[in-house]
Amino acid sequence: MYRRLLVLALALVLLGAVGCSSKSESDSSGSEEKKTESPAAAEPAAAESAEISLPDGWAISDVITEDEVGAITGKTMTYFPEAGSAAQSGRPTAGYTNEGQPNTKLYIGVDVAGGESGFETAKGFAEAATIQDVSGLGDTAIACTFAGGNVGVLVLKGDAVIRIDWPTAAYGDDAAGLGSQLANLLLDKMFE
User: Fold this and answer.
1) Helices vs strands, H then E, count in the chain
2) In a domain, 10, yes or no
3) pLDDT tens, 2-47?
């Protein structure tokens, strides 16, 4: 049985190598055959761009610095580790606070494999009357007020779901503006 499987596997490898190594032959005039790609064939390239370029187990603090968050918020920020972060399981979270100020935690959380169902679940924590679509951010994005009163954004790109929120007293209530800047900072680094 083992020998048959080995022979079958070897035959498949050889068949695959022969099929993958064939090239377009030049015609007698020396011009090479040109291939055109249909829009459907171009789609896998677009799907590849939705793959996270960071190593497994990455943490928010590996991707976004205090200074970068501070440049966007206009405040001196300090990294705040989240006890619930599960970076090794693909769910990194972190907070950044306005240095020395209480009640200023800006929360950033990612579920790298949340997908549409994870996005919809997280969207369920938004106050329905406050949900606004945000264009040009990931594949789908909303700005909203979350249960508990923080404002922020929820973004879906590929399978990754990103939530960023903050107390309005600390950073204002422009969920789409501030949230988009922070989310784009993270997205640019996640999908390099």
Assistant:
1) 7, 7
2) no
3) 334 333 333 333 333 333 333 333 344 443 333 323 233 333 333 3
Q: Is residue 37 part of a domain?
A: no
Q: 61 phi and psi, to 5 degrees?
A: -65, -20
pLDDT value for 192: 86
Residue 139 covered by a domain: yes
CB 140 within 8 A of CB 119: yes
* CATH code of the domain in which 165 resides: 3.40.1000
**Rounded Cα–Cα distance for residues 182 and 179 (Å):** 5
For residues 101-113, one letter each, b for 16 or more C-beta atoms within 10 angstroms of the residue's C-beta and e for the rest, the string is: eeebbbbbbbbbe
Domain count, the chain: 1
Residue positions counted in the chain: 192
